[in-house]
Each structure stands twice: as C-alpha cells, then as structure tokens.
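**Protein fold record**
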Amino acid sequence: MNIGQAAKASGVSAKMIRWYEEQGLIPDAARTGAGYRIYRAVDLDRLRFIRRARDLGFGVKQIGELLALWQDRTRASADVKRMALLHVEALEARITALREMAQSIRHLAAHCHGDARPECPILDGISGARP
C-alpha cells in the first residue's frame, strides 16, 4: 500500500510516517519504480505500535528501545517492566509539576481584580514582581 493508505490504516499521518522513517523508527520503505513508498502489513504493525507508544507519552528514543524489545523474542519481560515503571515515574513527576503550575496561576488569578485597571498581579507574578 502507498503512504496515504498506510496512514489511514495505521492512524499515523503521512508526514509522521516520513518523520519516523527519518528517525529510524521504521525501516526505509520499499519504493516503486517511480519512487513512491510501499508499505507492508509488518510496517503497519510497527506504525500502530509507535502510535500507541506516543499516545502513552513515550519519547522517540524510548520508542526505539521499546521497538527493539518488542522484536527481541529472547528479551526478559523484566526489562520492559523496568522501562515502563521508569516512564510512570517521569509521568508522575510531570503531573506534580503541572499541578504546581496550575496552583501558581490560580494564586495569581485570585489576586487579579479582573477589571479595567491596568494593574495586573498575574503579569507582575510572571515577571517576578510580587503580586
């Protein structure tokens, strides 16, 4: 199938398919005589795997490692679990940081009159001035 068909079947845009190929997450596609990319079922499986890993917040490097583990039938599941749990720790740290950001903005907004006056504790707080 061509790149458009592969994009539709995998849920990954054609642009991202080309980018994943550049990043080495998928092998270079076979080409027709006219130079058009051709994708096989195995390529679609790989694209779906990548899409799902991205949906779970894994980065490109991590996805490359996951793909290697996925294809290595001699790997220990402990290796995959360790990687997944490290990712959970990173996600939880990001969640904590996002909650702290939201609380800071909520605090700044609570001190804003929200009227026609030019004084703005939110902008003051972002600039480093005290609200």
Q: What stands out?
A: The chain has a mean pLDDT of 94. Residues 76-131 form one domain. The chain has two domains: 1-75, 76-131. Helices lie at 3-10, 14-23, 41-55, 60-71, 77-110, 121-127.
